[in-house]
C-alpha cells in the first residue's frame, strides 16, 4: 500500500513539475509568486513563533540566517521551473513528443526538489540545535496539540 501511495504521489509531482500547476505558473491563480512577499510572510510567522519562545537575539539572528539561505535556494529552484515548462510544452506540442526527454525533465526536477528537501531538513536540524531543550519541548507540545498526536 505504501509503495502505491509513493508511486501515485510521484505521478502527481511529475505532472505538477512539468505543467507548473500549483507553483505560480500559468496554472496558478495570480501568476508567479512574489519572492519578497513570500519572504515577508515567512519572516512574520517566524518572528511570531520566536516571540512565543522568548528567543534571544543570538537565536533570532542564527535562525533568520538559516531562513534567508533556505528562501534564496528555494527561489533558485522555482526559477528553474520556467525552462522545464518551456521544454515540456515544446515536447507536448510536437506531433511526436520525445518520451525520454520528458522523463529526463521529470527526473531532473524530482532530483532538484529532493536535494532541496534535504537542505530544508538540514536547516530544521540547524535551527533545532539553536533552540534550548525547553524551547524545543514547547514547539513539540504545540505540534502535538495542533495535530492531535499524543
Automatic annotation (TrEMBL):
<dbReference type="InterPro" id="IPR025961">
    <property type="entry name" value="Metal_resist"/>
</dbReference>
<protein>
    <submittedName>
        <fullName>Periplasmic heavy metal sensor</fullName>
    </submittedName>
</protein>
<dbReference type="Pfam" id="PF13801">
    <property type="entry name" value="Metal_resist"/>
</dbReference>
